[in-house]
Design a protein that fits this description.
By secondary structure, the protein is α/β, with parallel strands linked by helices. Helices cover about 35% and strands about 20% of the residues. The chain is built from 13 helices and 19 strands. The strands form four sheets. Strands 6, 7, 8, 9, 10, 11, 12, 13 and 14 form a nine-stranded parallel sheet that branches. A four-stranded mixed sheet has the order 3-2-1-4. The protein has a four-stranded antiparallel sheet with strand order 5-15-18-19, covered by helices on one side. Helix 3 links the parallel strand 7 and strand 8. Helix 7 runs parallel beside helix 8 and helix 11 crosses helix 12. It is globular and about 65 Å long. It starts with 7 loop residues before the first strand and ends in a 6-residue tail after the last strand. Bound molecules: guanine (GUN) and fe (iii) ion. The site of fe (iii) ion (FE) has 6 residues, from strand 6.
Amino acid sequence: MAPSLEKTIYVGAFVHSKSLQELEICQMGAIGVDENGTIAFVERYVTDEAPRKKDGWESAKIVKVGENGFFFPGFIDTHIHASQYPNAGIFGKSTLLDWLNTYTFPLESSLSSLARAKQVYNRVVSRTLSHGTTTAAYYATVHVASTNLLADICLEKGQRAFVGRVCMNTLSPDYYRDASIEDGIRDSKASIDYIQQIDPNAELVAPIITPRFAPSCTSECLRALGDLHRETGVHCQTHISENKPEVALVKELFPESKSYADVYYAAGLLTPKMILAHAVHLTEEEVALIKACGAKISHCPASNTALTSGCAKVRELIESGITVGLGTDVSGGFSPSVLEMARQAIWVSRFVAMNDGDQAKLSTEEVLYLATRGGAKVVGLEEKVGGFEVGMDWDAQMIGLGAVPDGGESNLEADDPVDIFGWESWDDRVAKWVYNGNDKSTVAVWVKGRLVHQTSRYER
Ligand code: GUN
Ligand code: FE
């Protein structure tokens, strides 16, 4: 049972997505959150005295957002390797397959040490929370104990998370893979059982079946994981069509399959509960298959650029009817910030537009949708998180932007990186945040009503 919270009314401006193209910007609102962390009411155009006028809310706590700030839904990172966080920014000029061998497998393998796993996982959960990530779909490593520790840490720090033990029985070095398919399935079940036992109603933390990607699993291994998926109903995550040599390798390793997507389909893994990361080089047939199966896609723009994997055609994916969210893909991606991914998604769409035309460009509104409502759909939590609606959980961040005083002099160290002069429209303020904001702009963060991160600017 979650601890009972103080009934709270969040007062001031709030911003969230109404649709892919449209943000709702309410300049003076009041959002009531009950003892369970659930949104009980959302009021717009409130006067100063109004918030506590509602029956039963007279003694509620009031949390006000500052003049240049707003409440925004927590971000959803639909693809992040918690185990790779120490390597964020370390990739040199590598591309996917040599990057895995040079940087990634050695680091992940070292997390067999629980002391090291504790150090890495405590830090990555705190860090992502500080960037406003209230939900994350994490890859851990093959190790059961350290994977379970990651789930413990998410629960303790209050981050909503899907935590996956990485499954692989080939490709990686002998020192870092499952000893056999049976061992892998046993370990995956052990981790699923543990995570379901620490949070039986999946209020915050849930397991996720995690075949690394087709080249690191034999077809028997993938089929066994597909069976586990069907038997348990647990979510799944993997990588698909990230770079061209990888696609060629899949063709070579799975000659009986029509395509990369077909490898997962044949294993029973292409379902509405599957999150596919990257999807850069999909064929039209694969897009149609993924759509027909209802699988979801995590767009990882920073990683795709860092490892020169390519530019995913996000507009085409969305128009085909596939659900898309954003993923940091740390440490293929260099940043743990979903706000940075929103920006990167806009940039990458510009490069697609240079070939495919202007319609490929993503707008600020669209990437904020992908970062919140889109991500929520990707992880199957769209009824609970991603927006401010009655009945949803209060997974939110308080954004505080900087106020430039008359004369322009100010304390740069204490202020937010976004300079608001006071004459900007609300649309422009949000755009300035998307392009220049960072974790300093995220003053406080709540998950399910619980305050899980705050900076010194909170309640200052
Ligand atoms: N494909 C297989 N493993 C990985 C990984 O750890 N990161 C990325 N970006 N792609 C992968
Ligand atoms: Fe990845």
